[in-house]
C-alpha cells in the first residue's frame, strides 16, 4: 500500500473580523492508493476545507500535507487530482463533449487524443450519446455525471468530490452512488468524498473519517469491513447498520459539549 | 398574432393624442390669423386650419408623414434635401463612434476587472464623465479636433464614443465578473493560466451582458452623432437638419428629422437583437 495523501498535525486558521476561526486543528490522516475515503460531519467541521487544502485551494497554517509525496501546489500543477464541486459547474455555452474537453484544452492534450478520452469518460458515467447536447438539455443528475466525467478526463489518480450529490433527490442519489462504486472499481482511483449523509458515507467508503466542529478535527476513523462488491441492499445488513451506528456515535460525541 | 390588436390600439391612441394637441397648440395662431383678416372661424374651420399651417407649433402627424415622404421617396438620395442622404451621414458617424465605444469599453472593462488600481482610480472618472452634459462638452471636443485637422466623421465619432463606451464598460465589467468563485476555483484546479481563464471562461460568460449593453450603447451612439452634428453642421446629417429646421422655424422639418433619427435607432437596436439571438443560439445559451 502506498500512501498518496498524508496530513500531519494539520492546522488551518482563518482570520476574520470576529477573531481567528480554527477550521482545522491537529488533523492526522493517511490516505492509501485506491482508498475510497468519506469525510462526514456537521457543517463547519472542516471537511470541505480539508478537501480544498488537498486541492491547494486553501493554504494550511500549520503542520504538513503531502499529495503524491509533493506539496499540494506541486501536485495541483502536475495535475494529480480531478475535483468535482457541489454544483456541476458546466459551461452553458459548451456542449457536454466540449465541457469535458475544457480541461484537456487547458492542459494542451492533442486533438486526436481528446476525442477518444471524451468517448471513454462519457461511457464511464453512462452518458453515451449526449456529447452534442447542451447542459440545459440534461437533468441535474446527468449534469453531475458529466461533471464527474470532466474530472476523470485527464489522467489524475485522485478524485476529490465535495458533496457532489448534495443537491439531488434520494432516488437519483442512490443510483449515482451505485454508479460511482462501479466507476471506482473500474478505474482504481483514490477518492476523497465529502458528504453529510451517513448511509452515503457507509455505503461508498473503505474508510470513513468522522469530523466535528469548533475547532474542526477528526473524532473517529473507521475502516469499513464491508466487501468491495456492494449491492444497494447491503444497506440492510447488520454489518452496515453497525458501522452506521458507530458513525452516528462519533458525530454525537463531537457535539456533546456543544449544546 | 394575438399582440397585433393591443399594439394597434396603442398606436391609434398616440395618434389621437397627437392630433388633439396639434389642434390645441395651433389654435391661437389660427384665431389670430383670422382676426387680422377680420374673419371669424367656426370650430371646423379652426380645426382644418390647425392641420395645414406652414410653421405650426406642433405639426399634425400627416404633415410630418408627407414631409418624410417628400424628402425620402421623392428625392434623389444624393440630394441635400433628402433625409436618406442625411441619415446616411449620421449613420456613418454613429457606426464609427460605436465601434470606438465598443473597443474602448471592452479594454477599460478588462483593465478594471484585472487591476484593482484601475477599478479604484478609473471607475469614478468613467462615471463622472457621464454626468457632464454632452451638449456642453461636444462643441469643445469638436473645436479641438477640428484644430487638429481631424476628419469630420472621426470628430463626430469621438462624441458618439464618449456616450456609447459607458454602457459597454458597465456591462462588460459585470459580465467578466459573472463567473462565481466555484468556476474560478475550478479553473485553478486545472492550473489554468490567467489568459486561459479569460478566453475560456470570463469572455464567453460575458456575452449576454455585452449584448444588453450594446443595445443601450448603439442608441447613445446615435444621440452622440446627432449632438455632434449640431456643432459640425456644414456637412449635413440629421443633427444638421434639426439645427437648420430650428433656425428657420421649420417645425415640420424638425419633426421629420426627429422621426428619422428614432427610426434609425430602432433599426440599429433591432439589428443588434437579431445578432444577439443568432450568437446566443449558436453558443447554446438561448434555450
Automatic annotation (TrEMBL), chain A:
CDD domains: ABC_NrtD_SsuB_transporters (cd03293). The keyword Amino-acid biosynthesis does not apply. Signal peptide: none annotated. It comes from the Bacteria. Keywords: ATP-binding, Hydrolase, Nucleotide-binding, Transport. Gene3D superfamilies: P-loop containing nucleotide triphosphate hydrolases (3.40.50.300). One of its GO terms (molecular function) is ATP hydrolysis activity. InterPro entries: AAA+_ATPase (IPR003593), ABC_transporter-like_ATP-bd (IPR003439), ABC_transporter-like_CS (IPR017871), ABC_transporter_ATP-bind (IPR050166), P-loop_NTPase (IPR027417). Its EC number is 3.6.3.-. Residues 5-234 form the ABC transporter domain. Coiled coil: none annotated. SUPFAM superfamilies: P-loop containing nucleoside triphosphate hydrolases (SSF52540). The keyword ATP-binding applies. Belongs to the ABC transporter superfamily. PANTHER family: ALIPHATIC SULFONATES IMPORT ATP-BINDING PROTEIN SSUB (PTHR42788:SF13), TAURINE IMPORT ATP-BINDING PROTEIN-RELATED (PTHR42788). This is Aliphatic sulfonates import ATP-binding protein SsuB. It comes from Pelagimonas varians.
From TrEMBL, chain B:
It is a multi-pass membrane protein. It is found in: Cell membrane. GO terms for cellular component: plasma membrane. The chain crosses the membrane at residues 89-113, 125-147, 153-173, 209-232, 252-275. It comes from the Bacteria. Residues 87-276 form the ABC transmembrane type-1 domain. Keywords: Cell membrane, Membrane, Transmembrane, Transmembrane helix, Transport. Its main location: membrane. GO terms for biological process: transmembrane transport. Belongs to the binding-protein-dependent transport system permease family. This is Aliphatic sulfonates transport permease protein SsuC. It comes from Pelagimonas varians.
